[in-house]
Design a protein that fits this description.
The complex is a heterotrimer of chains A (784), B (159) and C (298). Chain A is 24% helix and 25% strand. Chain A has 784 residues and is of the alpha+beta class. Chain A folds into 3 domains: 158 residues, Aldehyde oxidase/xanthine dehydrogenase, molybdopterin binding domain (Aldehyde Oxidoreductase, domain 4, 2-Layer Sandwich); 175 residues, Alpha-Beta Complex (Aldehyde Oxidoreductase, domain 3), CATH 3.90.1170.50; 323 residues, Aldehyde oxidase/xanthine dehydrogenase, molybdopterin binding domain (Aldehyde Oxidoreductase, domain 4, 2-Layer Sandwich), CATH 3.30.365.10. In chain A, helix 15 crosses helix 16. Chain B is globular, with a radius of gyration of 16 Å. Chain B contains 5 helices and 5 strands; from the N terminus they run ββαβββαααα. In chain B, 62% of the residues are buried. Chain B is α+β, with helices and mostly antiparallel strands and 159 residues long. In chain B, helix 2 crosses helix 5. A 5-stranded mixed sheet of chain B has the order 2-1-5-3-4, with helices on both faces. In chain C, the strands form 4 sheets. Chain C has a 5-stranded antiparallel sheet with strand order 4-5-10-6-7. The chains are: A alpha+beta (784), B alpha+beta (159), C alpha+beta (298). Chains in contact: A-B, A-C, B-C.
Chain lengths: 784, 159, 298
């Protein structure tokens, strides 16, 4: 596939040091809040709805407008355009209705944040409170209050199916085989429901956006972003601008996890800036606002029914998902779809019926979060698999190995699985956790258990999400790679440089990535989501670098009277295997080469370009969810944990955490392992601690004090990250993604281990000490 | 609101800054002195992204008033490296992969630097305790621990 | 409150008095508008949340020796108001003579916060969840207070009136807490339950101090204090009396733990339920008492 440059040390598969680490450890990496804007900078604050559901009757901004220092006060009346990624269901500022606590109603720009904050108190908003929808199953019922009466008129992507006149913004259906008659053939059937609560991404850097609109009406937006191009597209559309009149720049991103994808608060800054032309306007979310007004991970009510034959072969699954999509589901609708087509988990099941509903509620806005529906879905599904294995008296690992997808297995959506190493992942993980070997608890008041879970996920994106890259060189022969994908810390820039270096034949150290991503200069990238960059952007980079290589070899071949296949580039030098002539790249990449007869020059500045877009993704039938090639590929894997339950307090101690994922090819194994470690700990955190506590639509714990995340003291003492490599035939060097997958099977692995330890299952995470203890008390395992 | 003129040593250099009563040390560093290496993650003393050394000890600079720092010695992440030479903890963080998005990194470096100053050979548990006030969402802390251990080892070898 | 949290601290005047007299005079002059502060870790957070709106914040650190940490082999340990918790933890005398207090300090928040947090501040904040208050109560701590009428002393036992409420009057500045010499051979433990392993607030806290006491039929004196399960930090007298009169056996310790659970009145809140807390008081009291008994027997 890739022509590995011979005799050149290729960094592919090497633990090349992070290209951006130096700036980060010296404090010189520039994040959006670090940019100096000078004295013209204005600061914005937002007045937000205190009600989960209400009509806006009157807004009085008089007193705020005349407060000294206030330069602009804007409301939804100024911005009639809808905005949304897959479904345009949202206004930038609310117009006549508020749908969640925190919904933006008024924006203020002032010369200081303090004055803007004071101005908010001077704004009077009159509401007529309406009955809220606080549960997705209720929200799906015909008697529930209608949150989006205009749903039927919203602009919507072709693969999303809203039900006008209801709160269902997407209904994904999967019908395969004949589930109803399959149950009779099952030797064991289990049915179970789970409630997965809302959680939040909690990036260390809260959302931030600074926008400036010049007198011509051209917009610049600086923002911590996973999606500069998508933000340009969506915000321009909503404001009636031409995309080319909007420029989005994203400096270093302090964590994203999906929360900084699509558009959330960025449009607010642009909208306000339109009223104070010439001034940059900065909007920062406080940590508290980050918890309840930025994207959150949707809640899920999941009903599973599954059955297998006497040999343990899965025969049927009937899964119904009610997604608590929140006030706006412009992004969340696709999570519903992804869960729908992935509803069987990584198993071959001949008869499947699935209904995945995205339901509007008056809760915070659900959006993409690491795993995109997979952690929420696997949380219950992988527990059901364990229960079914138990019922059929089969070991949980053996049950999974029997049923899991292998190369050429038939998928729930009808296509066939490409080569994958899922069995190898399950085997390696069960070996690493010493599956089957029982170890005594460390103390009389502990119970010990082991649990395992498998997973799959495909990048959930439109069928034509594209990547592009450019490559140029400087007079010193060093390489500059332009990309539109973002390094959020996962290492995208680092592997970009590795891939360019390997393709061109230059040392890794001589490649730079042109950052920050700036839509004016960077090439297009759909979004940094879906764990798609290594594969998609990687292919684009390889194509662009090959373009450079070809131009160089063609030029030198012509100059030397040789053919390009007699030439190679090794360590930045073009060499001829035929004549043994050599010329360093730097001698030809800008000024070309002179013609030998003195008649002029040939060549010129070398510029490589490449793109990549999937071309063979088919749709999925609206009624059956079947399609030959519904997604580009899957990453699969497994995790296992060994833990102890403290009988005195209910606290869970994870002793050992092992993971194995089939990444196709680890371009940088250390970065892959770092994703596996980080994702596992984030998964543990979501399993044991995290929950946005919602009461009557109000988040009760929007702060670090009461929204607990894993600290340095909560890391399992033993962690193992195993890389499995079954190549992806259309991935660069066989690579596919890993960023999200490492968080997907964690909740059920822990839940299965808890069951092994104390024989109890829960309706959903987090498995807090209190929840576990009171369950043990109620079950008689401990005495009051 | 009154303004106060304070004398404060930042990374070895004496500065004179005029600050309002309600300005935190974090805001003074970032806004008055353009030392943006120290990060604002929560403004509530919970996440540790704003950790600096005050008179040699780690504090959450969002929980210290600038006016309280009259006469104090402050070290920020910008003061760790010695001209071009990185502090062992910075080097270790690069080598061991303890950095991902980098937002928690300055605070982690300051807490780690102070730990190694007071305890050159910390145990695993002592490292956890020293860093429990520095939240990280990306790394899972694993490689941060390895970085601290590596820096400790290197310092013991060179001292 | 977190829903309306401001990005920055509201406006106020910072005032740093030179002497205790100045401080008391100023605070008494503006009883409703002036508030003293030490480390600020509670005050600043509540000001950002809009719960406190003082016009003046009075910095009472560094006043007439309030920064001193002094141990007198005859009299005991005096911890100045401005002494941060890390200093107490690092103090050899504190470690040698009041290890229970050191243990309690170590459980607080994070290293960074302990550089600012003070024991006196913890006490004046009067949160029933205060981690160090139990140890101070069991060590018979006495507060030294400077007010408009000069200096006075107040034992901790009468200091707390309710959540956030103390006997302090306008003009009062606590200058130090004094812990008399602990009884010979005393042993203690502080068990803190948080939602994750470290750095959390106290969901339930059990402090136990025990020492040989020939005057008691049991030969020992046990004292137990609870955090986060009553409107004030709670010393459970029933534990002391029940373990004074009978031989100490595992059953007697468990019985005492039950008494502790009965004595407390936890509430349901965002951190935990009353039911869970009550159970934890029982379990953790049993554990703490048993641990201390074990140490005493060595």
């Amino acid at each position: 596939m890739e022509k590995e440059t011979q005799n050149s040390h290729s960094p592919i598969g090497e633990n090349s040091p992070r290209i951006d680490a130096y700036d980060k450890v010296t404090g010189t990496a520039v994040y959006a809040d670090d940019i100096q804007f000078g004295n013209a900078l204005l600061h914005a604050r937002i007045k937000r709805s205190p009600h989960p559901h209400a009509l806006i009757k009157k807004i009085n901004t008089e007193k705020a407008s005349v407060l000294p220092g206030v330069k602009a006060v804007v409301t939804g009346a100024d911005f009639p355009g809808y905005i949304g990624l897959y479904l345009q269901d949202r206004f930038i500022f609310c117009r006549d209705q508020v749908r969640y606590v925190g919904d933006p109603v008024v924006g203020v720009a002032a010369i200081s944040e303090e004055i803007a904050e004071k101005a908010l108190d001077l704004i009077e908003v009159e509401y007529e409170v309406l009955e809220p929808v606080l549960d997705p199953e209720f929200g799906a019922k015909p008697e529930a209050p209608l949150l989006h009466p205009d749903l039927g008129q919203y602009v919507v992507a072709g693969f999303i199916f809203p039900k006008a006149g209801t709160n269902i913004s997407n209904h994904f259906k999967l019908r395969k085989g004949d589930v109803d008659s399959a149950w009779e053939k099952c030797a064991a059937v289990i049915e179970h429901s789970y409630r997965i609560p809302h959680i939040q991404h909690v990036p260390l850097e809260p959302h931030i956006a600074i926008s400036k609109v010049d007198e011509k009406g051209e917009v610049t937006l600086w923002t911590s972003s996973q999606s500069p191009f998508a933000q340009r597209n969506l915000i321009a559309q909503a404001l009636g601008l031409s995309q080319s009149d909007m420029r989005v720049i994203s400096p270093a991103v302090g964590g994203g996890f999906g929360g900084k994808a699509g558009v959330s608060m960025e449009a607010l800054a642009v909208a306000i800036a339109m009223k104070v032309k010439g001034h940059p306007v900065k909007l920062c979310l406080t940590r508290e606002e980050e918890f309840y007004t930025a994207f959150v991970r949707q809640g899920l009510v999941a009903h599973f029914k599954m059955g297998c034959d006497k040999d343990g072969k899965l025969l049927a699954m009937q899964n119904t998902f009610y997604w608590d999509g929140g006030a706006y589901t412009e992004y969340g609708v696709n999570i519903t779809r992804a869960a729908g087509y992935s509803c069987t988990g990584p198993y071959e099941v001949p008869n499947v019926k699935a209904d995945s509903y995205c339901v509007y509620t008056n809760h915070p806005v659900g959006g993409p979060m690491r795993g995109f529906g997979m952690p929420e879905m696997h949380a219950g599904l992988e527990q059901c698999i364990d229960e079914l294995a138990l019922q059929i008296k089969m070991d949980a690992v053996d049950f999974r190995k029997l049923n899991c997808l292998k190369t050429n297995s038939i998928l729930a959506t009808g296509g066939r699985m490409h080569p994958i190493g899922l069995v190898e992942c399950i085997e390696k993980v069960s070996e690493a956790i010493a599956w089957g070997k029982k170890i005594s608890p460390s103390a009389p008041n502990k119970r010990r258990g082991k649990g395992l879970a498998a997973m799959w996920k495909a990048p959930a994106m439109p069928p034509n999400a594209g990547s592009s890259a450019w490559v140029e060189l400087a007079e010193d022969g060093k390489v500059n790679v332009g990309v539109g994908g973002q390094d959020l810390g996962q290492g995208a820039f680092t592997i970009s440089a590795q891939m360019a270096a390997a393709t061109l034949g230059v040392p890794y150290e001589s490649v730079r990535v042109a950052a920050p991503v700036d839509t004016r200069y960077s090439p297009y990238e759909w979004q940094t989501v879906a764990s798609r960059l290594t594969w998609s952007m990687g292919n684009a980079i390889v194509n662009a670098t090959r373009d450079v290589r070809q131009q160089v070899l063609d030029l030198v071949a012509e100059a030397w009277g040789e053919t390009p296949d007699e030439l190679n580039i090794v360590n930045g030098v073009v060499i001829s295997y035929k004549s043994e002539k050599e010329i360093p790249l730097k001698n030809l990449v800008i000024y070309g080469l002179p013609k030998p007869d003195g008649s002029g020059w040939r060549g010129g500045p070398i510029l490589g370009r490449g793109n990549f877009m999937p071309t063979d993704v088919t749709g999925l039938d609206a009624e059956t969810g079947q399609g030959e090639h519904g997604v580009v590929h899957y990453t699969t894997g497994a995790q296992a944990v060994e833990l102890e339950v403290d009988l005195d307090t209910g606290r869970i101690d994870i002793l050992k955490a092992v993971a194995a994922f089939d990444v196709g090819k680890a371009i940088n194994p250390d970065l892959v392992r770092a994703q596996m470690e980080g994702g596992f700990v984030q998964g543990i955190s979501s399993a044991l601690f995290e929950c946005l506590q919602l009461k009557n639509g109000v988040v009760q714990n929007p702060s670090f004090v009461d929204y607990r995340i894993a600290t340095a003291a909560d890391v399992p003492p033993e962690m193992q990250s195993i890389i499995v490599e079954v190549p992806q035939d259309d991935g660069p060097w066989g690579a596919r993604g890993i960023g999200e997958h490492s968080m997907v099977p964690t909740i059920p692995a822990i839940a299965n281990a808890i069951y092994d330890a104390i024989g109890i299952r829960f309706e959903g995470p987090p498995f807090t000490a209190e929840k576990v203890y009171l369950a043990m008390l109620d079950a008689g395992i401990v005495k009051p | 609101m009154a303004f106060h003129k304070i004398n404060i040593t930042i990374n070895g250099g004496l500065e004179q800054v005029v600050v309002p009563s309600n300005m935190t040390l974090m805001r003074m560093l970032r806004e008055s002195l353009s030392l943006t290496g120290t990060k604002n993650g929560c403004s509530a003393g919970e996440c540790g992204a704003c950790t600096v050394l005050m008179n040699g000890e780690p504090v959450n600079s969002c929980m210290v008033l600038a006016v309280e720092c009259d006469g104090a010695e402050i070290v920020t992440v910008e003061g760790l490296a010695d001209d071009k030479r990185l502090d062992p903890i910075q080097e270790a963080m690069i080598q061991e992969g303890g950095v991902q998005c980098g937002f928690c990194t300055p605070g982690v470096l300051m807490s780690s630097r102070a730990l190694l100053d007071r305890n050159p050979n910390p145990s695993e548990e002592e490292i956890h305790q020293a860093l429990v006030g520095n939240l990280c969402r990306c790394t899972g802390y694993v490689r941060i621990f390895e970085s601290v251990k590596k820096a400790a080892k290197k310092q013991r070898v060179t001292s | 409150m977190s829903m309306n949290t401001h990005p920055a601290l509201p406006e106020f005047e910072y005032y740093r008095p030179e002497t205790l007299s100045e401080a008391s005079e100023f605070l008494a002059r503006y009883p409703a508008e002036a508030r003293p502060f030490l480390g600020g870790t509670d005050v600043f957070v509540r000001m950002r949340d809009g719960l406190l709106t003082p016009k003046f914040l009075v910095d009472v650190k560094n006043l007439n020796g309030t920064n001193d940490l002094r141990f007198d082999p005859q009299a005991g340990l005096t911890i100045g108001a401005g002494v941060n918790m890390n200093r107490v933890i690092a103090s050899p005398e504190a470690k040698a003579h009041y290890p229970l207090l050191v243990e309690a300090c170590q459980s607080v928040a994070s290293y960074q916060l302990r550089t600012r947090a003070t024991i006196v501040g913890n006490i004046c904040n009067a949160s029933p969840a205060g981690d160090t208050i139990g140890a101070c109560l069991l060590f018979d701590g006495v507060l030294h207070i400077h007010g408009v009428n000069g200096l006075r002393q107040e034992p901790l036992t009468t200091f707390f009136l309710g959540p956030g409420k103390t006997t302090l009057k306008p003009g009062d500045v606590v200058t130090s807490i004094h812990l008399p010499l602990p009884p010979k051979s005393c042993q203690g433990t502080y068990i803190k339950l948080g939602r994750n392993k470290l750095s959390d607030l106290c969901l339930v806290g059990v402090t136990v101090l025990g020492h040989p006491h020939p005057a008691h039929p049991s030969g020992v004196r046990f004292r137990l204090a609870l955090a986060s399960v009553a409107p004030v930090p709670l010393v459970v007298a029933e534990v002391e009396s029940s373990l004074a009169n009978h031989t100490i056996t595992p059953e007697a310790l468990r019985e005492a733990a039950s008494l502790a659970a009965e004595a407390c009145s936890p509430i349901d809140d965002v951190r935990g339920s009353a039911r869970y807390r009550k159970q934890m008081v029982k379990n953790l009291s049993a554990k703490a008492l048993s641990e201390v008994w074990g140490k005493l027997q060595k």
